[in-house]
Design brief:
It contains nine helices and no strands. By secondary structure, the protein is mostly helical. It is about 70% helix and about 0% strand.
Length: about 325
């Protein structure tokens, strides 16, 4: 370790910097002015976290790992049981979440200064929800087929093609941004450009998802007789709630990225827990309980029942005349 003036940043007093080749001089989560692994400077004694620094919560990381693992296993079972292969993106997303939270555990228990641990968890947790969006897009496409083309302003194939294409674009841009951020962090270079790339991907995703929410609302309005059918209300609620939760998370990530790395939102784990972890885990668990494989056929039943009701109403009006 070289001599010199203490650097600004958070050094966990209960976890000395192991000074590995891939370690930063201060904890990376939150505010850390320099994370060049080659720069080793003395750590101030009894240092406490500055306003925008933290060591990842072990409880939150373990909870995320457990819940996403359980959801992944159950979704994998449901995928095979109901043969809903169109819903596979959700299982891919939950798997990525598990990897991300495992590396947050490693950051907490083994090395909160590790650039590699930070980059891996950041990459997988940021990218995973893109797959959840894709899964929700496929649900709407399937439901349009089940209810009827007249229920949507766009054909189901167009809905699926357009929004999945947008998802792919958003994924590629976000991966490029997240990877560039990791490289910038490792090389101790300015991450602004990398952050802007990620910001562009998130902004594009927020915009396209908002258009999708509008389309979903139009579908639910046009298919109101089917949707309001008693047997369909639970799944309709689950679909709307999961869509809103995933959108909330995406908006949060957009706001966080717009502020920049190590800014207020990025530097306080409470926002991560409440606006990243909580909405996503609730959304995927909602689809475990109300899995589309159990409900799409009921939409078709609802269409048949609504048709019977319309015929009965027509006969009653004819009879009264």
């Amino acid at each position: 370790m070289s001599s010199g003036a203490p650097i600004a940043g958070y050094v966990d007093p209960s976890f000395p910097d192991p000074n590995g080749s891939n370690d930063a001089p201060t904890v990376i989560y939150g505010k850390a002015p320099s994370i060049n692994p080659s720069i080793k400077t003395p750590k101030p004694k009894n240092s406490s976290p500055p306003p925008c620094s933290y060591t990842p919560s072990l409880v939150l990381a373990i909870l995320g790992t457990i819940l996403f693992t359980l959801s992944t296993l159950l979704h994998s079972y449901q995928l095979r049981k109901y043969r809903t292969w169109y819903f596979a993106p959700l299982t891919i997303g939950t798997t990525l979440e598990v990897i991300g939270y495992l590396f947050r555990i490693l950051s907490n228990k083994l090395d909160p200064y590790s650039v590699i641990y930070f980059v891996v968890q950041y990459f997988f947790i940021v990218v995973a929800p893109v797959f959840f969006s894709a899964a929700i897009y496929t649900i709407l496409s399937i439901l349009i087929n089940a209810v009827g083309r007249q229920s949507s302003p766009l054909p189901p194939r167009v809905v699926l093609a357009v929004f999945v294409a947008c998802d792919i674009i958003a994924t590629v841009v976000q991966i490029a941004g997240a990877a560039s951020i990791g490289q910038a962090e490792s090389n101790d270079t300015d991450p602004t450009t990398a952050n802007n790339i990620l910001l562009a991907g998130l902004a594009f995703q927020v915009s396209t998802f908002l258009i999708f929410v509008t389309l979903l609302s139009l579908f639910l309005h046009r298919a109101s007789k089917v949707v309001k059918h008693g047997i369909m209300m639970p799944f309709t609620f689950a679909l709307c709630a999961a869509t809103a939760l995933v959108y909330l998370r995406t908006v949060f990530r957009l706001a966080e990225t717009a502020q920049g790395l190590r800014a207020y939102l990025d530097g306080h784990e409470v926002f991560f827990g409440c606006l990243e972890f909580a909405p996503v885990v609730v959304a995927v668990l909602l689809f475990n309980v109300w899995h589309p494989g159990m409900w799409v056929e009921r939409y078709r039943t609802g269409v048949e029942d609504a048709t019977v009701e319309r015929i009965a109403e027509g006969e009653e009006e004819t009879g009264s005349v």
